[in-house]
Design a protein that fits this description.
This protein has 140 residues and is of the alpha+beta class. It has two domains: 29 residues; 103 residues, PH-domain like (Roll). It is 25% helix and 36% strand. The longest helix is centred in the first third of the chain and has 24 residues. It is elongated.
Length: 140
């Protein structure tokens, strides 16, 4: 009887530990950067229309020669983000809102539609930060 109870208790503890490990591994937002900083996974949201849009996971491909960023996103919710975007610079603090101190933000506008703007949120330790800063437009 005690052996059966011990078996049930150890099984419950094992399942609890697996659940905790799954929760702990998914608690933060996904982020990844290639070693050269040209590609990364980060968060992005539409801005400039007066509405508070949620952050969505996107994949960036930075094209320094053209100072543009090619963006892909999964699913139906990622459709507004897909395409080629031009880098504008660092957004005003009133536009970024809920960004942690260890993250960097960049303002973008859709190529061919300058009215559609967005904000990209990348972790400060990412190699993509330096690549994006080199793509800033020249101000004369």
């Amino acid at each position: 009887m005690i052996r059966g109870l011990l078996n049930v208790a150890s099984s419950a503890l094992f399942i609890s530990l697996l659940g905790f490990a799954m929760w702990w591994s998914r608690r933060g937002e996904r982020q990844w950067t290639s070693p050269d900083g040209m590609r990364c996974i980060c968060q992005m949201r539409i801005s400039g229309d007066g509405l508070e849009h949620p952050w969505r996971e996107v994949r960036l491909l930075i094209i320094p020669a053209l100072s543009t960023i090619a963006i892909t996103a999964k699913g139906h919710r990622g459709k507004p983000f897909r395409g080629t975007w031009n880098l504008l610079g660092i957004p005003h603090a009133s536009l970024i809102g809920d960004v942690a101190p260890d993250q960097q933000t960049f303002a973008l506008h859709k190529q061919g539609d300058t009215e559609k703007t967005a904000i990209v949120r990348i972790h400060s330790a990412s190699a993509s930060i330096a690549v994006m800063r080199n793509c800033f437009p020249e101000i004369s």
